[in-house]
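Re: [ENG-882] Designed sequences occasionally contain unexpected residues at chain ends

Forwarding the minimal case from QA. Structure tokens:
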């Protein structure tokens, strides 16, 4: 994550997924929010789950964009060879 662009775009995605998972836990009433130990445990679990989902999404988007870049030049070369 030494690339600045990744830091600017990936960390907010990870944070967003962590917050969304936390809200899902709250809406699902999985714990009593007034008990500090349960709140802390579920907050940590939500941050882990959110980070895992965010990393998976960013990795999938990166793989998709890389495969799209690799496929396009090959198709252009095939078209040029057919014209000759």
């Amino acid at each position: 994550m030494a690339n600045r662009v990744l830091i600017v775009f990936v960390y907010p995605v990870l944070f967003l997924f962590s917050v969304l998972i936390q809200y899902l836990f709250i809406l699902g009433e999985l714990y009593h929010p007034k008990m500090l130990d349960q709140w802390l445990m579920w907050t940590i679990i939500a941050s882990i789950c959110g980070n895992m989902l965010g990393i998976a999404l960013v990795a999938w988007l990166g793989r998709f964009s890389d495969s799209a870049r690799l496929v396009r030049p090959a198709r252009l070369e095939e078209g040029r060879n057919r014209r000759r």
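QA comment: On inspection the terminal residues look reasonable. The first helix runs from residue 4 to 27. Proposing we downgrade this to a documentation issue.
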